[in-house]
Amino acid sequence: MKTLVTGGAGFLGRYIVEALQAQGHEVAVLCRGDYAFLRQQGVRLIQADLADRDAVRHACRGIERVFHVASKTGPWGRYADFHRTNVLGTRNLIDGCRAQGVHKLIYTSSPSAVIGFDDLCGVNESLPYPVKRISAYQHTKMLAEQMVLAAHGQDGLVTTALRPHAIWGPRDTQLLPALIERHKAGKLIRVGPGRNRISVSYVENAAWWHLQAADADPDQAGRRVYFVNEAEPVNMWDWINGLLTSIGLPAVERALPYAGAYTLGAACEALFTLLPWLGEPRLTRAVAAVCAKDHYFDVAAAQRDLHLSSPVSMDEAHRRFAAYFGQQQTTTKDHTCVLARPS
Fold first, then answer.
1. Interval 44-71 mean pLDDT
2. Predicted confidence band at 154 (pLDDT cuts at 50, 70, 90)?
3. What radius of gyration do the chain's Cα atoms show?
4. Per-residue CA distances from 240 to 4, 33, 74, 307 (Å)
5. Can you say whether residue 189 is alpha, beta or left, with left for phi > 0 and alpha for psi between -120 and 50 degrees?
6. What is the CATH number that goes with domain 2-238+289-324?
7. What is the pLDDT of residue 333?
8. I need a surface site. Which of 17, 197, 222, 328 has the fewest CB within 10 A?
9. Average pLDDT, stretch 183-209?
10. Contacts of 242 (CB under 8 A, 6+ apart)
């Protein structure tokens, strides 16, 4: 089947591309850069910006289904930048799918679309969207998700949105590497008492869930959004410490009460809004909530409609993480890279 993956050079997108190729599908990737490893894999690379309506429409020509993984992420930044990629880019892709007769669109959304500042304990897809904007990322992912679902049935297009949470594993270049480097620099601090539970998504399983969604019965999965993550939540800080110690790093010991982190985050937001040339604050109210609140989700609907399953067990996922990032640590030491020392 001829398949297009947006953001196919990224962390999750790359695993989706590999899973599709393993099933014998013909894969094209839409991304802004030129990636030799994709060309070497036999992927048709389409260099374009999602904000370029004509280029996106051309990329959809001859395509049967699309996995829309590309997104601008992060807790801080100009709203216009998030809107350009996450909202305008998604609108262009939907228009391209409709114009070119694409049969199915699988959208990688995020639980961030519904996460606020409160605990979310085993909630399902009936949870309403927040009334107030939490962050530019949250708001634009919410708008994009709504557009994707609303496009179902237009010109024969079937749409499904997935909300994987805390994607992790080998080849991650953002979440865990950032935690590791902050920890090495002595700047990683636990927020709250450390009892909060979260859902996590091992990356190879997350890729598989996307393929399961694409193969699902459109009468069941069409115009639906699903939480998709490992079935059992983990204690966030025990999980992080387990990953750190598996690659030879000490556990996180420093802590800050949630109320203090929230107040400090609000002050940082005000300061960096007033003085944008300072860059990006390391702490915001949303980051404080992510680090201290329960965020775990019920996947019963995905298990029922998508036959959600995890080919890689959590024990094996941890082994693969330790093997990959442990090697990264060894390579760093061998190259005598200068790293910040804990204070």
1. 97
2. very high
3. 20
4. 34, 32, 19, 29
5. beta
6. 3.40.50.720
7. 52
8. 328
9. 96
10. 318
Residue whose structure tokens are 């350009």: 84
**C-beta separation of 335 from 179 below 8 A:** no
Q: What is the 3-state secondary structure (H, E, C) of the chain?
A: CEEEEECCCCHHHHHHHHHHHHCCCEEEEEECCCCHHHHHCCCEEEECCCCCHHHHHHHCCCCCEEEECCCCCCCCCCHHHHHHHHHHHHHHHHHHHHHHCCCEEEEECCHHHCCCCCCEEEECCCCCCCCCCCCHHHHHHHHHHHHHHHCCCHHHCEEEEEEECCEECCCCCCHHHHHHHHHHCCCCCEECCCCCEECCEEHHHHHHHHHHHHHCCHHHHCCEEEEECCCCCEEHHHHHHHHHHHCCCCCCCCEECHHHHHHHHHHHHHHHHHCHHHCCCCCCHHHHHHHHCCEEECCHHHHHHCCCCCCCCHHHHHHHHHHHHHHHHHHHHHCCCCCCCCC
Mean pLDDT of 281-294: 95
Strand order in the sheet with 234-235: 120-123, 295-297, 197-198, 234-235
What sign has the CA pseudo-torsion 98, 100, 103, 108? negative
The residue among 289, 337, 105 whose CA lies nearest residue 210 is 105
Residues labelled as active-site residues: 137
pLDDT, mean of residues 41-53: 96
Distance of alpha carbon 13 from the chain centroid: 10
| Structure tokens, 295 | 């965020």
Q: Give pLDDT, residue 327.
A: 78
The count of C-alpha atoms lying within 13 angstroms of the C-alpha of 190, restricted to the half-sphere facing its C-beta, is 17
Structure tokens at 67: 């996995």
- Cα(233)–Cα(230) distance, integer angstroms: 7
